[in-house]
Design a protein that fits this description.
By secondary structure, the protein is of the alpha/beta class. The chain has helices at residues 3-17, 20-31, 50-63, 69-80, 91-95, 100-114, 119-123, 144-157, 175-183, 196-209, 226-232, 256-261, 277-287, 302-313, and strands at residues 125-128, 131-134, 164-169, 187-193, 215-219, 236-241, 288-297, 317-324, 330-337.
């Protein structure tokens, strides 16, 4: 950063706030280094409060064009203080001076964020519904829409008595399977993923949550290992999946945070986005019990395509409905085994 740029920023801040001390803090922060140079050294002055650290890092993230700069700063510093969000931190605690260890940890984690590492990987955890899950790159980070997918399964199965079984294709961190197991004590799940990293992370999260006894996880690829899956998995009452569905030609448009850190195999659905969805439906025709269901999270362009595919080439299924996400975009497909043709 040039002297002129730094001075211009300080003048703007001075006109806006008139706080000399804040100007000095920003000089220290900006002169410590840049994202390209790696981790930033903590400021020379040790007496910095959590409140000021949030503000300084939000400004620095913004300067380096990091997405959601304020939220990134808040999540990281809240995590260092032992809370989920800044709102959960006591106001007095925000005004207290950070300890040396806290300050060093904040600088270390925020410097990771400067590389555009997603916040979920930086703090190594994320909340999904009522669970806190361990996160590790390159395992796919669960999105809010997938919480809605879990809700669709629960709508249909919460009232069922007796034991039943489910299959998750592409378990990632285990978010879907573990949320369902937590809510449905009579459920057992067979989960699989093409990534060994994902399989290990799902098992780690299952053990941390005490749900491992009702979960079976396998390193299998639904595209290549259909026969093995059929030999290992008993008939199931439902199949649920948030498969890779992004069209290959759209991959380059994704954020740097996604392209640089998350497993592309968990994102890229091929030229039409159905590269993994087709094998899932083929597997479902053989594994689902009578009136068993398939729940899919898909691209907004997919519901009519999948509906037409089922109607024209898959008489073993009934396409029940498409559902929209909270943004009112078509996002979920629900199919049912056709008793007459299944």
């Amino acid at each position: 950063m040039t002297f002129k740029t730094t001075w211009f920023l300080l003048r703007c801040m001075h006109r806006k706030s008139g706080l000399l001390k804040q100007r000095c803090d920003v000089v220290r922060l900006l002169c410590c280094g840049s994202a390209a140079e790696g981790a930033l050294a903590p400021p020379a002055e040790r007496s910095i409060t959590a409140e000021r650290a949030v503000s300084l890092w939000a400004q620095h993230f913004s300067l380096h064009r990091i997405s959601e700069p304020l939220l990134s700063s808040q999540y990281i510093i809240s995590h260092v203080l032992g809370e989920k969000t800044l709102e959960c931190v006591q106001k007095k605690r925000l005004r207290d001076t950070l300890t040396d260890k806290e300050r060093e940890t904040v600088w270390k984690l925020c410097s990771k964020r400067l590389t555009r590492m997603p916040v979920q990987y930086v703090i190594e955890e994320w909340d999904f519904r009522d669970l806190t899950l361990k996160m590790k790159p390159p395992v796919f980070i669960p999105r809010p829409e997938t919480e809605e997918l879990v809700g669709l399964v629960l709508e249909d199965f919460e009232s069922i008595r007796g034991d039943f079984h489910g299959l998750e294709v592409g378990c990632g961190s285990g978010a879907i399977s573990l949320s369902l197991l937590r809510s449905l004590p009579q459920l057992r799940v067979f989960a699989l993923d093409q990534s060994q990293d994902a399989v290990c992370l799902t098992m780690e999260n299952a053990n941390r949550l005490g749900l491992q006894d009702r979960l079976e996880v396998h390193h299998l690829d639904v595209v290549k290992d259909a026969d093995v899956i059929l030999s290992k998995c008993n008939p199931v009452d439902f199949i649920v999946s948030n498969p890779p569905y992004i069209l290959s030609q759209d991959m380059e448009a994704l954020q740097t945070e996604i392209l640089g850190f998350e497993d592309h195999a968990a994102l890229d659905g091929g030229s039409d986005g159905l590269f993994v969805i087709r094998p899932i439906l083929a597997l479902a025709s053989k594994l689902l019990t009578k009136q068993g269901r398939v729940y899919l999270e898909v691209s907004s362009c997919h519901p009519p395509v999948i509906q037409q595919l089922v109607m024209e080439t898959m008489p073993e299924f009934i396409y029940l409905e498409s559902r929209c996400d909270l943004s009112n975009r078509p996002r979920f497909c629900i199919l049912q085994k056709n008793e007459e043709n299944g």
